[in-house]
From TrEMBL:
<dbReference type="GO" id="GO:0051603">
    <property type="term" value="P:proteolysis involved in protein catabolic process"/>
</dbReference>
<dbReference type="GO" id="GO:0004222">
    <property type="term" value="F:metalloendopeptidase activity"/>
</dbReference>
<keyword id="KW-0862">Zinc</keyword>
<dbReference type="InterPro" id="IPR001915">
    <property type="entry name" value="Peptidase_M48"/>
</dbReference>
<keyword id="KW-0479">Metal-binding</keyword>
<dbReference type="Pfam" id="PF01435">
    <property type="entry name" value="Peptidase_M48"/>
</dbReference>
<protein>
    <submittedName>
        <fullName>Beta-barrel assembly-enhancing protease</fullName>
        <ecNumber>3.4.-.-</ecNumber>
    </submittedName>
</protein>
<keyword id="KW-0378">Hydrolase</keyword>
<keyword id="KW-0482">Metalloprotease</keyword>
<feature type="domain" description="Peptidase M48">
    <location>
        <begin position="68"/>
        <end position="254"/>
    </location>
</feature>
<dbReference type="InterPro" id="IPR051156">
    <property type="entry name" value="Mito/Outer_Membr_Metalloprot"/>
</dbReference>
<keyword id="KW-0645">Protease</keyword>
<comment type="similarity">
    <text>Belongs to the peptidase M48 family.</text>
</comment>
<dbReference type="GO" id="GO:0016020">
    <property type="term" value="C:membrane"/>
</dbReference>
<dbReference type="GO" id="GO:0046872">
    <property type="term" value="F:metal ion binding"/>
</dbReference>
Amino acid sequence: MQRLLLRLFIGILFALFGLVSYCTNVEKNPITGEVQRVSLSPRQEVVLGLKSRGQLAQQYGGLYPDPRLQNYVDEVGLRVVKQSAASQASYPFDFHLLRDPKTINAFALPGGQIFITLALFNRLNSEAQLAGVFGHEVGHVIARHGSEHLARQQLGVALVNAVGITASDNPQDAQQAAILAQAVNQLVNLRYGREDELESDRLGFQFMTQAGYNPKGLVELMQILASARSGGNPPEFLSTHPNPGNRVERLQAIIAETYPNGIPANLDEGQERFAQIVGSR
C-alpha cells in the first residue's frame, strides 16, 4: 500500500510539474495577437533553427547546386517577408532549395529557416505559387507553431511519465500504459496541427498579397498538391502538413471576402519571370 501511495505521489508530482510549466510559459504574439503557450523565446527559436538547418538539408540531399536558383528562391522569399507584416518579426529569414527530386515538400524550422524541395519546386509554374509556398511556411514561423508544438510535447512527456510511474509495479504494464498515453498525446497534437495549417493558410494569404502577389498562386499550390495526391503517391507535404479538408474552398472564400470586386490587377502572378529564370535549367 505504501509503495502504491509513493508511486501515486511521484506520478502526481510529474504531472503537476508538467502542467505548471506548460500553463505558465505564456506569451502574446505581437503579429497575430494570439496568446500562446510556448517553450522557447524567439532568440532560442533562431538558435535552434540555425543549428538544425544543416542536418535537415542533408536529409534531403543537401542544397541544390545552382546559385542562380538559390538566389531566386531567396529573392522571392525575402520579398514575401520584407513587404508584409512578417517584417515586424525579429527572425532572420533564410530560404533554401533542397536537391531532393522525389519528395514533394516544404519546411519551416523555428526561427525562420525555410526549405522547399526540388520535387515541389519543379511542379510550380509561377512566382505567385512559389510565394504561396513561402507565405504558408513563413506563417508557421510567425505563428510560432514549432514552439507551441514543443511545449505540448513536453507536457505530453510529463503526463506519459506520470502514467507510467503510477500504472503498475510491473515494468511491462507500465510501459504499455505509457505507450497508450503517448498515442493519445500524438492524436491531440495532430488535431492542433490541422488548426495550425488553417492559420498558416490565412497568414500565407496575408503575407503574399501584402507583398504584391496574386493569391491565386496559393490556391493553385493546393490544387497541385491535390493532383499529386490523386496520382496514387501522396506528396510528403500532406503528411507533414495535415490537410484540414476543403482547403481550396476555404482559400477561395477568403479571396472573395477580401476582394468582393475581384482580385486587383496589380497583384502579380509572375509567370513570365518564373519561366525566364526557371525555364533554362
